[in-house]
Amino acid sequence: MADVRIALRELLRKYRGDTEVDALKEGLVLLVQELMEAEVQEKTGAERYERTKSRRTYRNGCSPRRWDTRVGSLTLRIPKVRQGSYFPALLEPRRRTEKALLSVVQEAYVHGVSTRKVDDLVRAPVVKAREGGRVVNMAAVVAVGVTQTGEREVLGFDVGAAESYGFWVSFLRGLASRGLSGVKLVISDAHVGLRQALSEVLAGASWQRCRVHFMRNLLGLVPRGAQELVGAWVRTIFAQPDQEAAREQLELVAGSLEGKYPKAADLLREAGEDVITHMAFPQAHWRRIHSTNVLERLHREIKRRCNVVGIFPNARSALRLIGAVLEEQGDEWLAVRRYFSLGSMAALYGSSPEEFEAPALGVPKEVIAV
Questions:
Q1: Residue 50 scores a pLDDT above 60
Q2: Contact call for residues 61 and 309 (beta carbons, < 8 A)
Q3: What is the pTM of this model?
Q4: SS (H, E, C) 170-183
Q5: Do the bridges between strand 134-136 and strand 139-147 make them parallel or antiparallel, or are there none, so unpaired?
Q6: Are residues 170 and 217 in the same domain?
Q7: Considering the domain boundaries, does residue 226 fall inside one?
């Protein structure tokens, strides 16, 4: 309590000396931070830096989060714990999405769409946006990364008229300009423009071709009646204990396919190295880095929310809604355990788990799934 009083006195001194200081906002931030500290103290079983046998877990740094209140937007530092999860009881993870959807409807009204048409938009299943006086299809892209300490983050998102090379270069350069660095692995489908942009902007990163998309492409080259058998053969490649064994098995499978299904054999040899890239990383990570499944789930949720709106009045309104959905997802990721354990990340970097205790913004990303 003494620390709180000292902080309040300091805030009052600032307020008396500077009329620009918003004492109400700063005071609210101070109060909320103290409430979170009390919650985390109860969860860990010890005060900060306290040595006690009753301690249940340890603190693990903080994550920033914007909180919209009646006195304005506040920036909070949410404490994290090493085992289990913590999310402040006083925050509402889904509140911003509701506001974003409301802003889309408000903007539609401002742009001359009647309330009856707005009601129709809420029921329409089409995801489109108005641009230059006409309705166009807009592609939404999302990048998700994993920090050096194993937590998932949404790195960025955008909408564009087409997923061209130029669009991808601009998007990836935007990520780099905001601090993305140290990328070890990129997971995506085999989009030509994206691959070209990745080699230019993220040179030095390995590329993993999404295994799920690859299997769909390969099985599309064989008759329907043979797809189950061919799929089983190909999956034996991914069941190997290491990358070298996977290469040997890949050649055996490709050879067995050559006679009846030469196109499938050619694709397997051509893309084989790209679909087993993940095997060069810790085996504990393989299940989560061989495909873009984490992104597919995000895309489904974005599509579901956008279907509610239908035709967006412009690209900016679509960005606002998508951004709110992703902020909501980021909040939920804060409250769950790490995507990769500290031990497995330490093995990747050749360090001990103790060196990974305090994650910070801007640390290198091990994986970026686009």
A1: yes
A2: no
A3: 0.64
A4: HHHHHHHHCCCCCC
A5: unpaired
A6: no
A7: yes
